[in-house]
Amino acid sequence: MILVHTPNPKEVAAYLELFRAAMPERQFVDLEHAELSAIRHLVTWGLPDGLLAEMPSLEALFALGAGVDKLLARPDLPADLPVYRLLDGGMAAQMTEYIRYGVLGYQRNMDLYRRQQATGQWRMLAPRLPSDIRVGVLGLGEIGAAVARSLAADGYQVSGWSRSPKDIRAIRCLHGESGLTQLLVDSQVLACVLPSTPDTRGLLNRQRLETLPQGAMLINAGRGDLLDQDALLALLDNGHLRCAQLDVFTEEPLPADHPLWRHPAVAITPHVAAITLRQPSVEQIVRRLRQLAAGQAVDGLVERAQGY
Ligand code: GLV
């Protein structure tokens, strides 16, 4: 028995229909119809606390998302339970659009024109070409690598940073602490798609943000806890940073009275940069269920210690 659960019953119904059509030989159920002790596989995002402890037959968990920070922090998650996360799942293309939108806006000075508009200023700013703009991408997994490649194809100068060394054509790939400093020093746009892990939490602190060149832009579409929001506000206010496009926050929803909402240099979206698309996610999980049944290797297995 395979349990499919998200907090939204309509979404669960849509997932069940897709799973049943793709794998009619297996039994997919929602929480209401689940016999918890018989659940061997779980497909989920936002499972109520404590439920995992009631599933002693659970063999694998498939997260309906790319970032598994919340899931790994659950006290009821058995230490030896294999957890799989979505790789791409339709998210790489969306994330690429979200970041290209930000980078293009920066290159074409859209943020500055919006500010001029607010005070009725008609003033031409110097044009810049994509090749004039250096972009740094933090995170070079499935999603980050797709973002970096696409920006390079647009003509931007792209560097990328990851935990372990990578080799991606047309991208200057950096890693480690010194690689991070190298990347920050010359990224006019810093685009972050990192997951939240013990190594990345608090990564974008004041000192690292100050390492960015004067007038830089920050795009954060990874996780909110990577960034010191107060430091960002201070550096926008003192003019070191020019603007920010933020999709993720330390606290979500971002509290209505938070100063980020009304900052003229900040563009905010409500954690929508890349949402899980049902069809590609179902295809990916069905493929993995088949591979598991056949005793084959399965991708997307989360390394607990690394956090992704
Ligand atoms: C969304 O933020 C995800 O991690 O899938």
Bound molecules: glyoxylic acid
Number-wise, the strands total 12
Given this structure, which CATH class of the largest domain is correct? Answer: Alpha Beta
What's the pLDDT, averaged over the residues? 97
Q: Tell me the major beta sheet.
A: 7 strands, parallel
What is the element string, with H for helices and E for strands? EHEEEHEHHEHEEHEHEHEHEH
Radius of gyration over C-alpha positions, nearest whole angstrom: 21 Å
Portion in beta strands:
15-25%
Detail the poorly predicted runs.
none
Number of helices: 10
Report how far the terminal alpha carbons are from each other: 26 Å
- Spatial order of the strands in the main sheet? 8-7-6-9-10-11-12
Number of domains: 2
Q: Considering DSSP H and I runs of 4 or more, what fraction of the residues is helical? A: 25-40%
Q: Main traits of this protein?
A:
308 residues; alpha/beta; Rossmann fold; 2 domains; five-stranded parallel β-sheet; 10 helices; 12 strands; elongated; binds glyoxylic acid; Glyoxylate/hydroxypyruvate reductase A; D-isomer_DH_NAD-bd; NAD(P)-bd_dom_sf; NAD; D-isomer_DH_CS
